[in-house]
């Protein structure tokens, strides 16, 4: 499948990054073709994928029009020279392997990372030499590949270990300190989408992925950076929520790999600073309100809050309003119901220090 010409490099090499499949200007459409077996085998990841977040967060450092949630994250990095220094090797690898253009190697985001960072890095270390070589060759079609990267294709242990260590250090400096915010935001988005799944099945889940995706049975149309067709052939599709995926979803480049679609969580669930109303935290007293806050774990409608907390619907609505003003709960209207979800601040308040 031919790819478009690579984009021009950014002005500042320190902030340059890749525009991965689906990461910038929408000029095409990814058409994902489902069969009945694919619908039955479609799943949703329980959490964000750590290595996808590493790659996608690097893109966010390049953004000139940063969303509010990312501005807070980047400011935190700039205020910590130690964290920036620890990211250095990872940034250098990512600049080399994911330069400006429509492609980055799939070996950066192995399927095993679904089980955590260490599992993903272990899989990266075990990548066959031929796969390193093949994907680096594919990358070279669209951007020059630095000579020092070639050790991967030669199977040099020091190069492979250097990449794995650099990505681990990058994660520890750039992602892990923000981990609670990411986890809470992703959990909120996932709870909302699981609600679609439970109420209407996989097709309701796919219908709920608008506006960047549209379910037109038996095809899921995805806004993308190029025109592409992906036939699932009974393998199903794994949907992976991402905090750092911003504009449109991203898929693996190799159609022979297990199909994955990484999608940006709904903007309503991203944490942003400055949402607390003055004096509202002081209003958070009493067992009933604490019970309503606890009941919002995993997401709940007003009726569900009332049932879980043992209060009337009217009382649950009043408590949810105070919690929302305090920045502890986010309320999102979806159809006739209002879904209440914990913010990272609310999650942190419930969890022991």
Automatic annotation (TrEMBL):
It holds the Pfam family HTH_20. CDD domains: HTH_ARSR. This is Helix-turn-helix domain-containing protein. It comes from Nonomuraea jiangxiensis. Keywords: DNA-binding, Transcription, Transcription regulation. Signal peptide: none annotated. One of its GO terms (molecular function) is DNA-binding transcription factor activity. It comes from the Bacteria. Residues 279-351 form the HTH arsR-type domain. The keyword Transcription applies. SUPFAM superfamilies: Winged helix' DNA-binding domain.
